[in-house]
Amino acid sequence: YEIMPSLVGSEMCIRDSFRAELRRLISLRSTGIYAVMLLGCFFGPIIIMAAVYDAEYQGPIDASDIGKCTSIFHVLAIIFSGAYTATEIRSGSTAIAFLTQTSRYLSLVAHYVVEGVFLVCAFAIGIPLALLAGMLYPDGLEIGVGALPYWGLYLGIVLVWSSMATSIAVITRSVAAAVATPITWMLLIEQLLAQIPMFDAITPWLPFAASHSLLARSLGEATSVYPALATAFAILSPAFLLGVLSFTLHCKRDAP
Prior knowledge:
This protein is mainly alpha-helical and 256 residues long.
């Protein structure tokens, strides 16, 4: 009988943590701006392609074209996660959570989950918008049976990278570090390492290269000698390590 009150208290704690995080996200003006930008990533490039259409480059919009739109979504998701988390920490939201919630751990879990749900909702709305824009493209729309698994995999990869940005924000409490670190790693550091022959053995195991390898294999555009699970491990392991460090520091450090 003594267990029941503690279970009820735990459920209330979880509910309160998620409710507080959701209210915080919804109340920010920047959330609406990010939502518009994230949705615009899906149909904006297709509209621009239609506006500058050239008959020499004929071909319908396919899953890989929408994947290129998703790559823009990917970068913006990292910016949103890193900037939102670090800004909230520096503005005192973490300190308020420490005072009003009984569990520091749950407050960070709620943050990760609410942030992820926001991105999933944006993705779920953005893909139909991209398909609609593709129907209006001069050469039409051509989506194969492998499109849904490909987009689902891409969404998972986006969530992993956005969680890394969140973790870096919790660790460093810096907007610049949380945004610049993952983007610089993806677009600069890994690209430079790929140009150096002595790093050929480790290049396939770098998280961004592993992400592209999985996506290419899901569309049947490439093959790899490495198992898919090993490639997925290369993506998930840095996210896991950053997550463990972020939870440790979040629970042990005082609010800034």
